[in-house]
Amino acid sequence: MIMAHEIQGCLAIENSLNSVGLDHVAFVKIASTAVGSKMLGQTKEQTQAALSNAFLDGQSLRTYRHFPNTGARKSWAAGDAAAKALKQIFISEVSNENYPTAISATSWGFNEVLLKSPLQLERELDSYVMDNILYKVSFPAEFHAQTAAEAAIKISEKLKDRIKDIKNIQIQTQEPGIRIISKKGPLTNYADRDHCIEYIVSFCLINGSLDSNSYKDSAADDSNIDMLRELMTTKENPNYTEMYYDLNDRAIPNKVTVEMQSGEIFEEEVIYPLGHRNRRDESKKYLRDKFLDGLKIHDRDKANLIEFYDEKDLDSINIYDLINNIYK
């Protein structure tokens, strides 16, 4: 897991796929190919062959993550990429096909056809990605909106029965928040809504909460949501963008400002989402509860068994026993 996260994550840090319309799961496929090949004990030549074919293989467009085509495919795209990686590994078991310039070939290589610039990987591969992993703790929302949801929920406490009195709302976010999840117009399905920062902030201001049911058609029928979206302006804060891209910080800041008809202003800024390394200790309880709640949905008895493991002594836990107890 450390290796797969590190390869995929470091490639993503240095090469922006979404800026050329490609989905980031292309790097999931590359990382899964490399690590899967190692796990199966393949030779260096076999690994190189599998990787060359993974780069040649068709790469996913981001179409299904954006209006008007946002759909559920975004929820299984990474699994699909990992499956395609395994296919390339299995092919290299029986074939020595290797394409040495799959990335760099003039006119026909990955760089020129898809990336439009040379692929970069200049960081030392260690454990940066896993060490700095962001746990999605509180809200089932795209990560660039996590702190916006938290800010909006804090403000909602001051808006009891006053939603109709709001004059305007401003969201300050990072550049990816604008590019990836800021949307105008109709939102046609669940997948569209959980990738819309304006919908998320509206729902949180109205309800003071956000869960997986918040994106259903029945929840979206509330006319107040679109009413608030019409009052919203979403802008990039350059300082937030700088904090987001700083690899020693990796903040995901958002600020929500609500101006009332009376002139009152309510404002909340959240720099780091719960689950960020700077709030890791704060998030542990919620992560544990989230894990156990997920197990209880499928098998309450197995969830109760987890309580008997000593989480303060990880070396005492038999991983195979643990997996058998949570397998569904």
What does this 3D model show about the protein?
With 328 residues, the protein is of the alpha+beta class. The protein folds into three domains: 2-131, 2-methylcitrate dehydratase PrpD; 143-270, 2-methylcitrate dehydratase PrpD (60s Ribosomal Protein L30, Chain: A, 2-Layer Sandwich); 278-326, no CATH class. It contains 16 helices and four strands. The protein has helices at 2-14, 25-39, 44-56, 73-94, 110-115, 128-131, 146-156, 175-181, 190-193, 197-207, 217-220, 223-230, 238-245, 280-298, 300-306, 319-326; strands at residues 166-173, 232-236, 254-260, 265-270. Strands 2-1-3-4 form a four-stranded mixed sheet. Strand 3 (254-260) and strand 4 (265-270) form a beta hairpin. The mean pLDDT is 92.
Terminal CA distance reads: 21 Å
Architecture of the largest domain, CATH level 2? Answer: Orthogonal Bundle
What integer value in Å does the Rg equal?
A: 22 Å
- Strand line-up across the major sheet: 2-1-3-4
CATH superfamily of the largest domain: 2-methylcitrate dehydratase PrpD
Helicity, as a percent range: 40-55%
CATH topology title of the largest domain: 2-methylcitrate dehydratase PrpD
Given helix and strand content, the structural type is alpha+beta
Mean pLDDT level:
92
| CATH level 1 name of the largest domain | Mainly Alpha
Oligomer: single chain
Number of domains: 3
Please tally the helical runs, counting DSSP H or I stretches of 4 or more residues. Answer: 16
User: Which H/E pattern describes the elements?
Assistant: HHHHHHHEHHHHHEHEEHHH
Portion of residues in beta strands equals 5-15%
Count of β-strands? 4
Main sheet record: 4 strands, mixed
Looking at the structure, what is the overall shape?
Answer: globular
Low-confidence stretches: none
